[in-house]
Amino acid sequence: MAKELWKGNEAIAEAAIRAGCRCYFGYPITPQSEIPEYMSLHMPKVGGVFLQSESEIAAINMVYGASGAGARVMTSSSSPGVSLKQEGISYMCGAELPGVIVNVMRGGPGLGTIQPAQGDYFQATRGGGNGDYRLIVFAPANIQEVVDLMQEAFELADQYRMPVMMLLDGMIGQMMEPIEWKKPPVSPDDLPEKPWATTGTKEGRAPNIINSLFIDPEACNVHNKRLEEKYRRVIESEQRYETNDTDGAEVIFVAYGTPARLARAAAGLLEKEGIKAGVFRPVTVWPYPYEALHEVSLQDSVKAIVTVEMSTGQMVDDVRIGVNGVKPVSFIGQAGGVIPTPREVANAALKALGR
Amino acid sequence: MAYHEIIVAGFGGQGVMSIGTTMAETAMAQGLNVSWLPSYGPEMRGGTANCNVVIADTEIISPIVLEPSELIAMNQPSLDKFEPAVKPGGLILVNQSIVERKVQRDDVQAIYVPSLEIASELGNMRVANMTMLGAYIEATKYLKFETVVDILRNIFTGKKAHLVELNEVALQRGADCVNR
User: Fold this and answer.
1) Which residues pair with B11 in a beta bridge?
2) Domain end: A187, A218, A237, which one?
3) In this predicted model, what pLDDT tens digit does every residue of A71-91 receive, in sequence order?
4) Do B62 and A265 touch (CB under 8 A)?
5) Residue A160, domain CATH
6) Interface membership of A264 toward B (CB under 8 Å)
7) Chain A residue at shortest CA distance from B22
8) B43: pLDDT confidence band, cut at 50, 70 and 90?
9) Alpha-carbon separation of residue A282 from A3, A319, B7, B85 (angstroms)
């Protein structure tokens, strides 16, 4: 199939439509506004719903409603807007509703800047809303991966009845790369039945109830244990990662999204200086591929693990959990919309190696 | 191995982004790997704009261009900002119509294109950017002129189809500036 040149934000919107998503609710914010723009043009063409809500809070609650009614549904925003959605995300997890939330991250905290950043890692992987909940969080590093994972995100959301987050940074949203549409488009008519959805009983069955309120503590405990069991299955089955040149490497960079590409450029610089460097890239940041990272770290050749982020250090906590003390872990990052250079990243590795 | 890292920079409205996307589309049609990364933000609203384009026959590692092998400077601030970053032995294409100075470095190749004068002669100021692209293609010789024209044919369709020929002439006039 011929390659097509797509911008990240537009590609993610088209991938959603091809995944059978027919409901989009959102509110514009840079650097993701091409997503609602694309949806406003293309959703009506496939008989779908595009609605620009009055706020991000309204949008996530519309997602809750449409998902409860059995629709494939999504919303998108950027960092400050995703903060506003946290309550609704917690409610979706409590009510076990599928849906896809796209966060094209910009610098924070607060309004911050519109330039690319990764400061929402804790919010995405630890939960910005209340309660014991988890999201499957995909962190693509190129546009092909954006479209492949977006189509998969809807499938996993339905399979586990939980929200899935696509965690991008502004650069992935704004850049263009060639892609191929590997999977055929899915028609909403061909999706599996959702017997739990509130589609109307027509007086032929007992009503379905969608709710996150379990007022009796025993019942709420049972509910939480059931969610825990579901999240355990996700941890077992859905960890994704990629490695580049990690076999026999002296230093391992760990990075997701844009910084993973910078880390590979840094590894190229180090190679010219006679140092073998590899890159470990989590593709899911929840569930985090702890064991795979641990395996890579255990190699005798590995002297240092260097985490690279566009933040002041968030994923590095997960790296420390994965490496679990077998090798020293250090951190290099820039925040607030500044992107670390490959030279800075390479120098951080040299420092970690004591050179 | 070909690995071109390009910065196209100028004022918003000069067609900076579309030079970059046309390059990227052309390279992709020739089977090369490409990435296109725009600057975005307040500078787009009336200020300077630029895009990073990487074109390679190998995998593209980072789409961010810090040391361009080629720079297309559509205005003076862009030349001032990016001239020091160009790789030694690299190429700088200057929009001679509004840039008042010459390239100062002697370890890079400089080509000057009177883009506005050419566009004015052709009767459409909006093709000025295509003269720069034409000069780029001629100077670097890895993007095919015919492929660019094919891409333009896909962009200008229906009522705009007549613009293909005009853009083709603009590309050629730009290319003519290279070996003067």
Assistant:
1) B48
2) A237
3) 999 999 999 999 999 999 999
4) yes
5) 3.40.50.970
6) yes
7) A5
8) low
9) 26, 10, 30, 33
